[in-house]
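lol so apparently i was supposed to do this last week
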Amino acid sequence: MTLFDQIFDPEIRPAIRVVTGDPRIERSPGLPDEETALRRASECRRREFRTGRALAREAMGALGIAPAAIPAAHDRSPMWPEGIAGSVTHCDDLCAAVVARKADGILSIGLDVEPAEPLDPDLIPEICVDEERRWLATLPASRCGLFARTVFSAKECAYKCQYPLSHTLLDFHAMRISIDISRGSFEASFNRDVAPFRTGDTLPGRFAIDSCHIVTATALTANAFASGYLRRQGESHDAPVRCG
Ligand SMILES: CC(C)(COP(=O)(O)OP(=O)(O)OC[C@H]1O[C@@H](n2cnc3c(N)ncnc32)[C@H](O)[C@@H]1OP(=O)(O)O)[C@@H](O)C(=O)NCCC(=O)NCCS
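anyway here it is w/ coenzyme A bound
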């Protein structure tokens, strides 16, 4: 069993493919539209970028999708082929890519990998809102730093998931993460309106931790998005957000 086997909810797992690899391995150049992003890149950056693209194409292949370029936009976000949702992440020794077809009801995906090391305490005020800091303070001191890093990872993964819809760069206080340790799940809630999302909208996610890595993942389904299910129960809203 790997960290990624149960990182997406069982209902959507059949529609999703995750492929992992080692970003330190030399890779042959990717497709021409992708390589333009690497003009001034270091060797290390070339390897991780090419690994991410190669793994994404492997994941697309596993879903029966023909190989296609995934260029980087000017803001560095991946430009997935029409009809495809995906996400790429890498740390020093692990790279992962996840892909799904939008026709299978997956609008957007976020995936993040971090080393399983405590977050630098000096970064906590920048990363965590008061509610998250209060929750971290309830944990045994030995686990606080690791879960602060998990909050950080969950925010990065939720950021990647919301970006294809909002095209908005968010600071770390724009979202609030609530972690359920026993379930290996979290909720990422918007602390402010970020169209098309509104304050209180919540992306569901899962996390997994082993001795080396923290992995977080979230997927936005078309059903949840179209039905307004993203809204927290009990909140009143004018109208549900609609896809497209
Ligand atoms: C984009 C970002 C989240 C990437 O995280 P990271 O830990 O630096 O790196 P990761 O390896 O996990 O992910 C990098 C990959 O994310 C993807 N990515 C970059 N920008 C992205 C965006 N705007 N939307 C979606 N995916 C993006 C790319 O595929 C990139 O890999 P590549 O350049 O090789 O293709 C991070 O650099 C960033 O800008 N964070 C600030 C915004 C944020 O996280 N706010 C929190 C809101 S609560």
